């Protein structure tokens, strides 16, 4: 006997739901954008940490992937993806694991942004007969880590790697401060700042007779806002595959393009406070409140119907470990909430930060256009 496919009404909650049609549209949109700009797309798969999602990105035309942990690199290499950039500065105790992956056939690239680490990589590589491919991280916006494009340390790191017998593969940067912007003009300016800074770093290395074949830039906001990418060879972006409320506030997506949501069930009411209690607290949504500092604060998430249509005015205003507190604006709360959202009602909640919310779950439930569901496992750990 053939069992019926499960539906959203059958799932235990909370559950992470991927709207596959929206995801595929997001993938196609970014791929078309990067193809038009004439460079390669190397998606950052830390957003999903999910093999079927990464395979969909590669099938659409992406070339290689970016990961944030060696555990991810192992997972995706086991799934047949070999061209991998590990985009967190390598530390010495991870070099044996990186070498093991390379010796199994993985085309793993690692990064660094300081002279001490560059010498450590070169020393370990020489000791074990391994010529690691290393990219140098460039700081183009003062947001996080990296070497500034005009710093003397750039050439010192490049020389330590190249003269130490390693393969100096290129430079990479990530303009994370683009997440603080929300106008097309500011985003385009940041995209140009990111491009120009990384290209300058590459030109300085080449002028010093050091190789620099790859110039890698990108974040979802800058990738979707760049007007030209002269001197760049590839773009890395990640959250575009799902988008989220932070990206919506930035202005690079609409709410109906958000592909990840959390399925939740109404478990109680606090009528005197105008609250609806759901079974999705911060263990499901994460503690990320990235929209709090933006033009529209969505609390812990935007509440939607079971079909995924946003309910205007209703957000998750609070979150305990397993309890989410849902409430509406004054206008939205005028009706009898207990009658409108009875115990057992199913809702979907759009997250502030798709990467953080996805990380709360061991698997996704991929929702097809016909309503059928598949289970897609995700990676976790380091």
Describe this structure in words.
There is one protein chain. The chain is elongated, with a radius of gyration of 22 Å. It has helices spanning 20-37, 51-59, 70-78, 95-103, 115-128, 152-163, 184-207, 220-223, 245-250, 282-285, 337-340, 354-358, and strands at residues 15-19, 40-41, 65-67, 83-89, 107-112, 133-138, 167-173, 214-217, 234-235, 260-270, 275-278, 302-304, 310-319, 324-328, 346-350, 363-367, 373-377. The protein has 382 residues and is α/β, with parallel strands linked by helices. The strands form two sheets. An eight-stranded parallel sheet has the order 2-9-8-7-6-5-4-3.
Query: How do the SSEs run, as a string of H and E?
Result: EHEHEHEHEHEHEHEHEHEEHEEEHEHEE
Mean pLDDT equals 96
Going by helix content, strand content and strand pairing, the class is: alpha/beta
* Secondary structure: helix percent: 25-40%
Major sheet: size, sense and barrel closure?
A: 8 strands, parallel
Low-confidence residue ranges: none
Which descriptors apply to this entry?
single chain, 12 helices, alpha/beta, 6-stranded antiparallel barrel, 382 residues
